[in-house]
């Protein structure tokens, strides 16, 4: 994924910055503890599509 996208994208829930999870192909919000999936190199920035991170999951 294009890393410059990360500087543009923000969490739709809290507007905070996101962390790219390469092994998960997702963008994670450490504040909301949600992971937004990346499908075909396109981040899906929808709260109802996001995965809730497990409490012990490292971001
Ligand atoms: Zn957030």
Descriptive overview:
The structure is a single chain. This protein has one helix at 4-8, and strands at 19-21, 26-29, 34-39, 42-43, 51-52. The protein is mainly β and 59 residues long. The chain has a single domain (4-52), classed as N-terminal domain of TfIIb (Single Sheet), CATH 2.20.25. Strands 1, 2, 3, 4 and 5 form a 5-stranded antiparallel sheet that branches. The longest helix has 5 residues, at 4-8. It starts with a helix and ends in a 7-residue tail after the last strand. The relative contact order is 0.23. Zinc ion is lined by residues 11, 13-14, 16, 29, 31-32.
Write a concise synopsis of the structure shown.
The chain is built from 1 helix and 5 strands; from the N terminus they run αβββββ. The chain is globular.
Give the SSE map:
Elements: H1 4-8, E1 19-21, E2 26-29, E3 34-39, E4 42-43, E5 51-52
Antiparallel strand pairs: 1-2, 2-3, 3-4, 3-5
Which descriptors apply to this entry?
mainly beta; 59 residues; 1 helix
Structural class: mainly beta
Using the alpha-carbon principal axes, give the shape. Answer: globular
CATH class membership: Mainly Beta
* Ligands: zinc ion
CATH topology: N-terminal domain of TfIIb
Number of domains: 1
What's the tally of helices?
Answer: 1
Strand content: 25-35%
Helix content: under 10%
Radius of gyration: 10 Å
Largest sheet: 5 strands, antiparallel
- In the CATH hierarchy, the architecture is Single Sheet
Low-confidence stretches: none
Distance between the termini: 17 Å
> How many beta-strand elements?
5
